[in-house]
């Protein structure tokens, strides 16, 4: 097992966890349930903590895969740029979730403005995580890239299409 494998294993935790955290937060706010709000905030802290090793295994994972066939260097760069923003927002949301959780344990209820802030940050974080994950998938999976819908991927890898034909006729394509 190498760091690319570890990165691929870890990256599902923040993405899926963020989705569940959003659902719990919405449900907790709708039902005015302190228990569901606590569970959502706790899950959001776990997501923020899981994002740390996920983010920091990204660069070593790049070193492992960047020279493999079908791997797109521009896709790696897009994924890396998106990951920086998603990581920063997720960590900020983790801090807000921790503060909210501490506030909830000291007070009888969380103020609406704090729930609204937590919900907004969770939705932004979730969207950024989903975008980052989608870009990460495109690094190696050419079938989900935009050009695949145009038939580019169905013609095989570019390096195989650029091999000169054995007939010497350049119009064989």
- How would you classify the helix and strand content by structural class? mainly alpha
Beta strand %: under 5%
Tally of DSSP helical segments: 8
Return Rg in Å: 21 Å
The total tally of domains equals: 1
Helix content: over 70%
Mean pLDDT: 82
| Shape estimate | elongated
Care to count the β-strands? Answer: 0
Amino-to-carboxy terminus distance? 41 Å
The major beta sheet can be summarized as: none
Low-confidence spans: pLDDT under 50, at least 5 residues?
149-154
Taken in chain order, the helices and strands follow as HHHHHHHH
Describe this protein with a few key phrases.
single chain; 173 residues; mainly alpha; 8 helices; 0% strand; elongated
Describe, in plain words, how this protein is organized in 3D.
It is a single chain. The protein has one domain. It is 75% helix and 0% strand. It has helices at residues 3-10, 12-31, 34-56, 58-65, 73-106, 112-140, 146-149, 158-161. The longest helix has 34 residues, at 73-106.
